[in-house]
Specification:
This protein is mostly helical and 601 residues long. The protein folds into 3 domains: 22-229, Clc chloride channel, CATH 1.10.3080.10; 245-449, Orthogonal Bundle (Clc chloride channel), CATH 1.10.3080.10; 457-600, CBS-domain. The protein is built from 24 helices and 5 strands. It has helices at 3-13, 19-29, 32-70, 74-80, 83-98, 108-117, 124-137, 147-164, 169-188, 191-202, 208-229, 250-278, 286-305, 315-322, 328-347, 355-377, 381-400, 403-414, 420-437, 442-449, 488-495, 518-527, 552-562, 584-600, and strands spanning 482-483, 502-506, 512-517, 566-570, 578-583. The chain has a 3-stranded mixed beta sheet with strand order 1-2-3. Strands 4-5 form a two-stranded antiparallel ribbon. Strand 4 (566-570) and strand 5 form a beta hairpin. Helix 21 packs across helix 22 (518-527). Residues 455-465 and 596-601 have low confidence and may be disordered.
């Protein structure tokens, strides 16, 4: 028999196993639920490995740079060390603007958007860029954390696994909280906190199926992390003091954390708005500018204190605070420096999270309270360490707004359960005060700043009732507007290459007047090139509109009855305030997405 005939015979007998054959074999061998649970274990392993790799990469990159810079002449250190975070920010900015715009920020807002609006579709490419940009931006010394990027990266891994193994769309969506929990479990070595965080931040109903998959993944991820990095808490603390009146410090400490956490959120949002909308420099330069500010601040604090905690993650200084090994003034300098540097690093558009800074703030402020107690009441050093621990929980509750997680995470990160009562009191005070001052949590506020509104989506309970969701869930917030005081030609010129089917027309105060289609605008530009639009069209005619609270089902009926293709979304309180546009395409696309999920479930 010839060699070619033998090869043909073997291929006929044993055909190559293509991806479609692989999916068919999995569907034949396992049910959808069984495949989901198997993938939860695989996702836990993969996410644990990815989280540990990210952790070690950040650590070794930063300390390689730090040790090298310390070896220079002191003058050269002062000159060049501030430039390292700036260079990291510049490189990250170029990659973010050209290749990976979705890898900016902490990653948790992006994960929430993918879960609620894209049926959990997160590409593995996003996870890879998140890993790379975190190493560049945070590894070069910028003052952000690793936990948020780990969540986004692990959610991308879990989502990609679900799609690769042919899960139905609803199962792919369910893989996002699985990856999210696995990422937190591996990043913090805290599996219980990972579960509570997923339910507090992403989900609202404790669905047993979701809970089982998340539990499986976080346990596997935690086992992987502990196998590679060892069985140890994230932070090392000594003996805790005995119970006593000193524990009442949790009350003023909770109040301070609530107020300072609120100021941090407001400062970050205002500075981010400035960088995004008002700073007249190219977008790729902004993370570099933020990195330069971080470098200057962190270097100045290092020269004052000989501590480098403002750079990068800073957990080394948190360990020192928990061991009562820092002076009150040193902790105050570190807090102020980290507070300002983190605002610059995040607002400038860098890639990194907010968990680590929140815990750092709490450790330093709590330590300062402990030092004051020591000076006034001659309490032992163990009280300073205990106050640092209480401060960490209170600041986490104030900034991240997950009160249950803020309690459990301190237990799991320190393996110390002796301060449960003051920890709970301080955390709840900080949480309720911060929520009262600003009801919208930081991640939702960041999404709103980007004109993405997920406020109404947590009530969503599946494809059967998507029509009851408000129009705000699918509308377009970033509209392309015409201005009545300008001519049609000027409006076309200011649009550039962007083109839509129709445009809202606004007056000089930004109030809504009417709608114009693109052909109508071009005709006006041709026949009346110089005259303002307000002189050429009737701005008092009634335009069919909807409110953001209008249900998708009701909007659908309006579109059918009135034969509309688009409608402006106006405020219920102010009929001239334009909030966005909803189109027939938006409604149809949502309907098709849900129908696909039902067909594939």
């Amino acid at each position: 028999m010839k060699r070619s005939e033998l090869i043909h015979l073997v291929r006929a007998k044993f055909p190559p196993l293509s991806l479609s054959h692989w999916h068919d074999w999995l569907r034949w061998r396992f049910s959808d639920g069984e495949r989901f649970l198997i993938l939860c274990m695989i996702a836990g392993t993969a996410c644990g490995l990815a989280a540990v790799s990210f952790h070690l990469s950040l650590h070794y990159i930063f300390y390689f740079i730090w040790d090298f810079m310390l070896g220079l002449d002191p003058l050269y250190f002062v000159i060049f060390m501030p430039l390292v975070p700036a260079l990291g920010g510049l490189i990250a900015g170029i990659i973010l603007t050209t290749l990976a715009p979705n890898a900016a920020g902490s990653g948790i807002p992006q994960t929430k958007v993918a879960y609620y609006r894209d049926f959990g579709m997160i590409s593995l490419r996003e996870g890879i860029y998140r890993f790379l940009l975190g190493c560049i931006f945070v590894g070069s010394g910028n003052s952000l954390g690793r936990e948020g990027p780990t969540v986004h990266m692990c959610a991308a891994i879990a989502s990609s696994l679900g799609r690769f193994f042919g899960l139905a769309k609803q199962r792919v969506r369910a893989m996002v909280p699985v990856g999210m929990g696995a990422g937190i479990a591996a990043a913090f070595n805290a599996p219980i906190s990972a579960i509570t965080f997923v339910f507090e931040e992403l989900l609202e109903d404790f669905n047993s199926r979701a809970l089982g998959g998340i539990l499986m993944a976080v346990v596997v991820a935690a086992v992987v992390e502990r196998s590679l990095l060892g069985e140890h808490p994230t932070f090392i603390i000594g003996a805790m003091p005995e119970s006593g009146l000193w524990m009442l410090v949790c009350i003023p400490l909770g109040l301070a954390a609530g107020l300072l956490g609120h100021f941090f959120v407001i400062g970050l949002l205002d500075m981010r708005h400035f960088f995004k909308d008002r700073l007249p420099i190219p977008a790729w330069m902004k993370p570099g500018l933020g990195g330069l500010a971080v470098g200057i601040i962190a270097t100045a604090v290092f020269l004052l204190t000989q501590e480098n905690g403002v750079f990068s993650i800073g957990y080394g200084n948190v360990d020192l605070a928990l061991g009562a090994k820092l002076t009150g003034m040193t902790m105050l300098y570190l807090f102020v420096g980290k507070f300002i540097a983190t605002i610059f690093a995040y607002a400038a558009g860098g890639s990194g999270g907010l968990f680590s800074p929140a815990l750092f703030f709490g450790g330093m402020v709590g330590g300062v309270f402990g030092v004051l107690l020591k000076l006034i009441f001659a309490t032992p050093d163990t009280v300073v360490a205990a106050c640092a621990l209480l401060g960490m929980g209170a600041f986490f509750a104030s900034i991240i707004r997950c009160p249950l997680t803020s309690i459990f995470i301190i237990f799991e990160m320190t393996l110390n359960y002796s301060l449960i009562l003051p920890l709970m009191v301080g955390n709840m005070i900080a949480y309720f005060l911060a929520a009262r001052l600003k009801p919208v949590s930081i991640y939702n506020a960041l999404l709103l700043q980007d004109k993405i509104n997920l406020r109404s989506l947590p009530s969503y309970r599946g494809p059967q009732d998507y029509r009851n969701l408000p129009v705000s869930a699918i509308m377009t917030y970033d509209t392309l507007n015409l201005y009545a005081y300008m001519s049609a030609g000027e409006n076309l010129e200011q649009m550039g290459e962007r083109r839509h089917r129709a445009y809202p027309v606004l007056n000089e105060n930004g109030g809504f007047l009417t709608m114009l289609t693109h052909p109508e605008l071009e005709l006006l530009a041709k026949n009346h090139p110089k005259e303002p639009i307000s002189d050429l069209i009737a701005t008092d005619k009634d335009v069919e509109s909807v409110h953001p609270e209008t249900s998708i089902q009701h909007a659908d009926r309006i579109f059918v009855d009135k034969e509309l293709l688009y409608a402006p979304v106006l405020s219920k309180l102010d009929a001239r305030r334009l909030l966005g546009i909803v189109t027939l395409h938006d409604i149809t696309r949502q309907h098709c997405l849900v129908e696909d999920s039902v067909d594939n479930a």
